[in-house]
Specification:
Oligomer: single chain
Number of strands: 2
Strand order of the largest sheet: 1-2
Structural class: mainly alpha
Distance between the termini: 55 Å
Radius of gyration: 23 Å
Largest sheet: 2 strands, antiparallel
Shape: elongated
Number of domains: 1
Order of helices and strands: HHHHHEEH
Helix content: over 70%
Length: about 140
């Protein structure tokens, strides 16, 4: 529950505080212009990065590979675009980090290094242990009397 408290309560309050401070320094009109400008930049980056991510995913899928990085990258692109559309400078910085390819790859490496992708399904590294053993099939047991 605490995890949701920060983004939904404290982040908007912090965004509002920063917007008021910036508006006090540069004026309300320029602050609104900055917010609208970052939204326009966000839309342009979302369109460009989303399209390139989709092309890379299609290319990998046509080669028979699982486009795990591209699918997760698509989630980051969508999240980044959404954050840039929201008014506020903190969400703009986080959204820009999600949309810029070098920073997005850094985030993806961190996430993918924690999860091992096997056959299209993800599992944690701890689940990758091999348990050796022997078994014997008892065909008599499978028959009905």
């Amino acid at each position: 529950m605490r995890f949701f408290l920060i983004p939904f309560v404290f982040l908007p309050l912090l965004e509002l505080f920063i917007l008021i401070q910036v508006g006090d320094e540069i004026g309300a009109v320029l602050t609104i212009g900055l917010v609208l400008g970052t939204a326009a930049i966000g839309l342009a980056l979302l369109r460009q990065q989303g399209y390139s991510t989709l092309l890379r995913a299609r290319e990998k899928a046509s080669q028979g590979q699982v486009p795990a990085e591209e699918m997760l990258g698509g989630v980051f692109v969508a999240l980044g675009g959404l954050l840039l559309l929201l008014p506020g400078f903190i969400t703009d910085v986080i959204g820009l980090c999600c949309l810029l390819p070098p920073l997005r790859r850094l985030f993806l490496k961190g996430l993918l290094s924690r999860w091992l992708v096997v056959g299209g399904m993800s599992s944690s590294r701890d689940a990758g242990r091999v348990i050796e053993g022997e078994f014997e099939r008892d065909d008599k047991r499978d028959r009905l009397p």
